[in-house]
């Protein structure tokens, strides 16, 4: 069994190294594995190969498996960056590092508003009384039910997700529930891929996360390569990673454009999702997920 403080020490050391662009002091296993947007590379050779400053962090710790996961807003003095990190610790060494990075590049049809994230709500910082905590498998069931609802919405097989009526959702910082939506046509284009949301509400009027499902906002989306690697039972948080695809599978097409690859954080209370934060990175469908998919 690990402790939160122990795991947090590794995260802090890694993020300090990232800020300084110097990983020489990071305790890495000799056989460590690092991926960035699903590409296996050497640490320090990726998109963030320059100094950055961390502005906001959402963090969770899995004391049973020795893993940690964070979502951060980074600043490189020119732009804001959405950043996801997962690390695994074995014998006081980092053995796995998984990162998703979104720099807000133009032409990529993915929500992006990291400046909107100024603080982290209490849903991510609370300590739930042991008697009221959901089990690991219950948290996985809730998260998987969210994906099941996305895949079945708009069909006779639709099963509603376990999500609170007032739940908030943020996608790369963009607030996509319970307020007037911005005009997404410039971001997504008039004929975007089917897995890009098409909000059916008049004048982009306020709508809940549950209404999105009930109205089939993501109808036709396939949620592939689902994983649930990091679970924080004390906080009631689970991290799921997955890739979105349309009805036409492009995984064997090297010329296909990027599609959303997501690290979705769910804050759950007594089996119900209260808040969702997601980092979405553009990853080509032909690039395979480099991590084992069987983590149940």
Structural class: alpha+beta
Number of domains: 2
What is the N-to-C order of secondary-structure elements (H for helix, E for strand)? HEEEEEEHEEHHEEEE
Relative helix content: 10-25%
Put simply, the count of helices is 4
Radius of gyration: 18 Å
Largest sheet: 6 strands, mixed
Number of strands: 12
Characterize the overall form: globular
Strand residue percentage: 35-45%
Strand order of the largest sheet: 2-1-6-5-4-3
- What CATH first level of the largest domain would be assigned? Alpha Beta
Ends apart, CA distance between termini: 18 Å
CATH topology of the largest domain: Nuclear Transport Factor 2, Chain: A
| Residue windows where pLDDT falls under 50 for at least 5 positions | 189-196
Overall pLDDT metric = 90
List descriptors.
single chain; Nuclear Transport Factor 2, Chain: A; six-stranded mixed sheet; 296 residues; alpha+beta
